[in-house]
Amino acid sequence: MSTEVSEYRRQEESIDISARQHVVEEGEQELLTLNMGPHHPATHGVLRLLVTLEGEVVRDLKPIIGYVHTGIEKTAEDKSYWKAIPVVERMDYLAYYFNAMAFCGAVETLLGLEIPKRAQYLRVIHLELNRIMSHLVWLGTSALDLGAISMFWYCFRERETILDLFEFSSGQRMHTRYIQVGGVMDDIPPGWEAKCREFIDLMPDRVDQYGDLLNRNEIVLRRLRGVCPLDEQSLLALGVTGPLLRAAGNPWDLRKAAPYSSYEDFEFRIPVGTQGDNFDRYAVRLAEMKESVEIIRQALDGLPEGPHITEDRKIALPPRHELATSMEALIHHFKLVTEGFRVPPGEVYYPIEGPRGELGCFVRSDGSSKPARVHMRDPSFVNLQATAPMVRDAYIADLIATLAMLDPVLGGIDR
């Protein structure tokens, strides 16, 4: 053996570990603080959880965010209102139609713009398809966290159908820029309505199948029922909205409480829970998918005739076929694309009901063609506060399930 190796062995064997030994007195608490994330597969995004454990019991938890910060709100302030829409869509990447709707709704309020009825219905149809798609991603990934692997494939099968519909109507599967200031980018193409009706005829049975697979699964029931409840008053104090609040028995839903985009024209129920536990959070979202299907069906049945976007050429691009024959249309197109449109000075907050709760957009205008301030009230950011009170004194396995039932999207949290 070489001299270097023998010297290493001598030092290694001479280490005295007696000073490290410590006898835990009876009744003494031994707490372990560890990191879960920021790349843990069960964190539903780049989230870091600083977890304090006593054995397998969670005694405290601190969410640490900011790992995917993109500065989208500040970027939007450097672009014209027209060009900010694709940027805003990329915050909550599972709710891109909702991001665009909140931003466009705020700008339209400042402009005092009246949106054609057909455009409002088309917005509702795509928003509810997006809500179902978001819930499908949540259900598939949450079931995966609980070990129900098959659910992931079933949910993504239906998600693909919805993304095909988005591609059919807008040309893009994700981040479609379909909702624009003044309406929507284009009318639905021939054949789209028939494909959409095929989907909504199929979807209620598929939701029932999901329920049949999970509602009688003993492992799923033990992981969800009675686990990590949080009462309505605690949720309200934290500003929590959406399915998490409705699971505790509060039926608050902005589609009913403060209707927008003609939601007052549709009949639908607000699913609520009774215990506010993980099972109620799961059951509420499952029921919401069926209600979204009914809203889409009513919107298709009552889809009004008329334009799909405002006819104000200073706000909306002129039809492409006019560009070759009308100098005025060409000028409007050129001005909108290069400079955008000016918005009267003022500020507004425009809230809508997103898949995770109240998604609101604050816009302040200084009279120019660019917003002076854009700020989004993302529900994932607010709802994340509830994680610690939910999981305190629960097992670490329950923390995984509860985080899944929270349905956080880190793109919306960090923005």
Features:
415 residues, globular, three-stranded antiparallel sheet, mainly alpha, 17 helices, 48% helix, 8 strands
Q: Can you describe what's shown?
A:
This protein is mostly helical and 415 residues long. Helix content is 48%, strand content 11%. It has 17 helices and 8 strands. It has helices at 3-13, 72-76, 81-89, 96-111, 117-145, 149-170, 192-214, 218-224, 232-238, 243-247, 254-257, 278-301, 327-338, 379-383, 387-391, 396-406, 410-414, and strands spanning 32-36, 48-54, 57-64, 179-180, 183-184, 346-354, 357-365, 373-377. A 3-stranded antiparallel sheet has the order 1-2-3. It has a 3-stranded antiparallel sheet with strand order 6-7-8. Strands 4-5 form a two-stranded antiparallel sheet. Helix 4 runs antiparallel to helix 5 and helix 6 (149-170) runs antiparallel to helix 7 (192-214). The longest helix has 29 residues, at 117-145. The radius of gyration is 25 Å and the shape is globular.
The count of β-strands is 8
Work out the helicity level: 40-55%
**What structural class is derived from the secondary structure elements?**
mainly alpha
Strand residue percentage: 5-15%
Structure described in brief:
The chain is mainly alpha-helical. The protein has 17 helices and 8 strands.
Could you give the topology of this structure?
Blueprint lengths: L2 H11 L18 E5 L11 E7 L2 E8 L7 H5 L4 H9 L6 H16 L5 H29 L3 H22 L8 E2 L2 E2 L7 H23 L3 H7 L7 H7 L4 H5 L6 H4 L20 H24 L25 H12 L7 E9 L2 E9 L7 E5 L1 H5 L3 H5 L4 H11 L3 H5 L1
Antiparallel strand pairs: 1-2, 2-3, 4-5, 6-7, 7-8
Helix pairs in contact: 3-4, 4-5, 5-6, 5-12, 5-16, 6-7, 7-12
